[in-house]
Every structure is written in structure tokens, then in C-alpha cells.
């Protein structure tokens, strides 16, 4: 394994350990800890893959959906799956694909776990972080050309923080 290929693995391990520690400090319920760890680990893999390749394979979304089956609440899970993803899909159509289908499916899967309130908060936190950093970088680099950005590395942490703040509940 070359040195460059080791960085994503190391990052995934460190982020997984950090998420586990945060879950242990936040929750007493072992089901919520397990659900959160499965959710966080899945998000981390997706974030790294999207950051490196600008694509999110459908197969990567299955563990996110599976984590939503732990402590499953049908109505909020289904509402959450459509809350942000429909808005992103409409935005993608109106802007001729500025948001990829992978990001839409990613937020639908996260919404299945978080419910409508959590996925909305997670998306807003992730987008806000992206916009702040992007505006800062743009002002300092004087960059005017159009660039495609991977969004999962921004949306994923927002969704994990939303999981922690909402108590892991989909309601």
C-alpha cells in the first residue's frame, strides 16, 4: 500500500474512534450508541469516497439505511427520507445538475435515520460549513472559475452532529 492510499484509511479509523467516543459521552442507551456508530462509520466511508472520486456508489448507502432499522420508527423515517432529498432533487433539476444524484440519495438515506428534523438540521449545518469555508477560500484564492465540489464531506458531519443533538431519534 502506498503512502497516499494510507491517509484515507487512517482518517477513517481516527474519525470512527472519535465518533464512538462522542456517542459514548452523549448516550447511555446501547441501541442508540450502536445505531450512531453504524451510522457514523457509514457516513465516514461515503465522505472519503466522495471526497476522493466525486461519486457515491449506491452500495455505500445500504449501511446507512441499515442503521436506520435499529430503533426503527416508520413514519419519521419515511418523512425524513423525502424532506431534504426532494428539495435537493428539485434544486438539481432547476440548476441543471449542480447537485449530483449521489448527494440526493445520500441525504435520503441520512433522512431515513434522522427523520425530518434531524436531516434538515444536518443539511443546514453541513451546507453552512461548506459556504463559510468556500467563501473564505474563494476570497483568499481569488478563484472565479467554476469547480465541482464533493458535498458528502460537508453534509455527513452535519448529519452526525444532528444525530447527537436530536438524541438519535427520528421524530
Counting DSSP H or I runs of 4 or more residues, the number of helices is: 6
C-alpha end-to-end distance: 44 Å
Poorly predicted parts: none
Percent of residues in helical segments?
Answer: over 70%
Summarize the structure.
The chain is 79% helix and 0% strand. It is built from 6 helices and no strands.
Descriptive keywords:
single chain; 171 residues; mainly alpha; 6 helices; 0% strand
Descriptive account of the structure:
By secondary structure, the chain is an all-alpha fold. Helix content is 79%, strand content 0%. α2 (30-53) packs antiparallel against α6 (152-165). The model has no long low-confidence stretch (mean pLDDT 88).
SSE topology:
Blueprint (H helix, E strand, L loop, with lengths): L2 H24 L3 H24 L4 H11 L5 H21 L6 H41 L10 H14 L6
Helix pairs in contact: 1-2, 2-3, 2-6, 3-5, 4-5, 5-6
